[in-house]
DNA sequence: GTTGTATGAATGAAGG
DNA sequence: CCTTCATTCATACAAC
């Protein structure tokens, strides 16, 4: 077997460990990025697959004036809204399956609509009406929301409306997660130091990219083959 | 130097070629995904929050305002989602009690989760998938959109858009495939199919995913180290 | 073009 | 299973 040594290339344990780590890093990054991208698509591209896949052409700019916009979400016609509110106020707080279908058919005479649209509308309406009532505990502040009857459609209620949505939209979290992941992988392998020029990132999004960029490169190792 | 041979591991040219290909594939995929993600962000990242559970900000650290927005409902981590979908699609439409427990344990590796979360997820998922499926044929209603401007002259413009239902796409094929793939990567399995051509597709998302799918497995090779 | 708000839609959870 | 509620996400529109 001694002779055979001459016909194979060799690598040390250290090299192999390095290689293994590098592959692991790439695998992890790929996985995370794919997952991330999938997530983005799933949530922001849910209905009108017009992004990413290629060129996103803004439909609004395409036609000088009217529609042609494949809209992503249903917007009730004014008459539909009227009818919906009327139905809502005609008692029957229970839309129920059967009624939904019927209502949908009726409303479809006045614009595109689907059963789920109707269903969602009632759901949201009720939920939000209830939600509004729930605001009365403000310690020291303004008016208490008077039960506004929604009978009059066609009007936009622009109220001060102490909503306080808060909304901690955790945008950058995924970046942090990935960064952490890469960091740990670097720790594990403990061989490479990130090559310099790590300019401080201003955005968290960029941070993830930067982490990737500071990931150990493969090329130097490849040269050893 | 003969003795030294005993202290190094060897790999054949073929193995090295394979390795090199794999690394190249990962590098390519990573870069492309990053490009895609940048693209997404650049076009509509106004404040697009990706919801990712598992980490929540301590409400006490919030601004001087109030509101104790602690998250009150489980939000699956993306990786958890991946795994769940994978499991769902691996046949086995019936997650029995025992399985639930096992799945929960596995998923708890990637974020907070409880058995009821898993149970509910499967319930909801199945139900809604079925529900969506029910919307198919229905030549539906052609609406008469003539009426749109006459009904309520006294209000803001509600565009009577035509809003073609587009597609369902609640469960894109590629997502499933990716999920499966990622899941499989965690297992160690045989079968190694080369090709290692990296294919370097354009920046179409599905293409990238396909590239990823055709990526040679690492695990079998790693086993040789 | 930026920000705030209203609201359609998605989804986790609870009850039967 | 199925239905319903509660909460959250994402987007259209308005005001600045």
TrEMBL record, chains A, B:
Listed name of the protein: Homeobox domain-containing protein
Residue spans binding DNA: 69-133
KW DNA-binding (keyword) present: yes
GO MF annotation terms: DNA binding; DNA-binding transcription factor activity
Bias (Basic and acidic residues): 153-162
Main location: nucleus
Transmembrane regions: none
Chain positions covered by the region annotation Disordered: 130-164
Domain Homeobox as annotated: residue spans: 67-132
GO cellular component terms, semicolon-separated: nucleus
Compartments reported by the entry: Nucleus
Keywords, in A-Z order: DNA-binding, Homeobox, Nucleus
């Amino acid at each position: 077997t001694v002779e055979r040594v001459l016909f194979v290339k060799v690598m040390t344990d250290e090299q192999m460990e390095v290689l293994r780590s590098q592959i692991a890093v790439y695998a992890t990054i790929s996985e995370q990025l794919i997952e991330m991208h999938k997530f983005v698509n799933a949530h922001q591209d849910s209905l009108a697959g017009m992004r990413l896949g290629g060129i996103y052409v803004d439909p609004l700019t395409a036609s000088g004036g009217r529609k042609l916009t494949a809209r992503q979400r249903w917007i009730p016609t004014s008459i539909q809204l009227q009818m919906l509110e009327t139905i809502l106020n005609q008692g029957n707080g229970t839309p129920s399956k059967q009624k939904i279908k019927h209502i949908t058919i009726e409303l479809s005479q006045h614009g595109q609509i689907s059963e789920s649209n109707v269903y969602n509308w009632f759901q949201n309406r009720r939920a939000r009406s209830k939600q509004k009532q729930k605001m009365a505990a403000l310690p020291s502040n303004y008016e208490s929301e008077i039960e506004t009857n929604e009978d009059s459609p066609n009007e936009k209620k622009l109220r001060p409306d102490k909503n306080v949505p808060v909304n901690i939209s955790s945008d950058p979290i995924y970046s942090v997660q990935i960064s952490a992941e890469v960091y740990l992988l670097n720790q594990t392998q403990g061989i490479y130091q990130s090559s310099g020029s790590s300019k401080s990132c201003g955005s968290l999004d960029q941070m993830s990219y930067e982490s990737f960029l500071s990931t150990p490169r493969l090329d130097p190792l490849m040269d050893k083959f």
